[in-house]
Design brief:
Layout (H helix, E strand, L loop, with lengths): L2 E4 L10 E4 L2 H15 L7 H8 L3 E2 L1
Antiparallel strand pairs: 1-2, 1-3
Protein backbone atom coordinates (compact mmCIF):
# COMPACT_ATOMS: atom_id res chain seq x y z
CA UNK A 1 0.00 0.00 0.00
CA UNK A 2 1.26 3.50 -0.84
CA UNK A 3 2.37 5.73 2.04
CA UNK A 4 1.51 9.44 2.17
CA UNK A 5 2.44 12.45 4.29
CA UNK A 6 2.15 16.23 4.06
CA UNK A 7 3.39 19.21 6.04
CA UNK A 8 -0.23 20.08 6.72
CA UNK A 9 -0.53 16.75 8.58
CA UNK A 10 2.08 18.14 10.99
CA UNK A 11 0.29 21.49 11.30
CA UNK A 12 2.81 23.35 9.13
CA UNK A 13 1.76 26.15 6.79
CA UNK A 14 3.41 24.44 3.84
CA UNK A 15 1.76 22.92 0.79
CA UNK A 16 4.30 20.11 0.40
CA UNK A 17 3.15 16.49 0.29
CA UNK A 18 4.57 13.25 -1.01
CA UNK A 19 3.86 9.58 -1.50
CA UNK A 20 6.07 6.52 -1.76
CA UNK A 21 5.60 2.75 -1.91
CA UNK A 22 7.35 2.19 1.43
CA UNK A 23 7.89 3.99 4.72
CA UNK A 24 11.64 3.93 4.13
CA UNK A 25 11.35 5.69 0.77
CA UNK A 26 8.82 8.16 2.18
CA UNK A 27 11.14 9.05 5.06
CA UNK A 28 13.98 9.70 2.61
CA UNK A 29 11.77 12.26 0.86
CA UNK A 30 10.65 13.76 4.18
CA UNK A 31 14.25 14.06 5.38
CA UNK A 32 15.30 15.85 2.20
CA UNK A 33 12.34 18.26 2.44
CA UNK A 34 13.01 19.05 6.10
CA UNK A 35 16.70 19.75 5.37
CA UNK A 36 15.83 22.05 2.47
CA UNK A 37 12.72 23.86 3.74
CA UNK A 38 12.34 23.42 7.52
CA UNK A 39 15.76 24.07 8.99
CA UNK A 40 14.07 24.84 12.33
CA UNK A 41 13.22 21.13 12.73
CA UNK A 42 15.93 19.03 14.29
CA UNK A 43 15.80 15.50 12.95
CA UNK A 44 16.34 13.31 15.99
CA UNK A 45 14.77 10.11 17.27
CA UNK A 46 11.85 11.98 18.85
CA UNK A 47 10.99 14.12 15.81
CA UNK A 48 11.38 11.18 13.43
CA UNK A 49 9.03 9.13 15.59
CA UNK A 50 6.49 11.97 15.54
CA UNK A 51 6.77 12.28 11.76
CA UNK A 52 6.32 8.53 11.28
CA UNK A 53 3.14 8.64 13.37
CA UNK A 54 1.61 10.98 10.73
CA UNK A 55 2.16 8.61 7.80
CA UNK A 56 -1.07 7.52 6.12
CA UNK A 57 -1.74 4.53 3.90
CA UNK A 58 -3.62 5.33 0.70
Amino acid sequence: MTKSISCADAGKDCGWSTTAPSEEELMEKVTQHVIEKHKEIELNAESISSIKSLIKEI
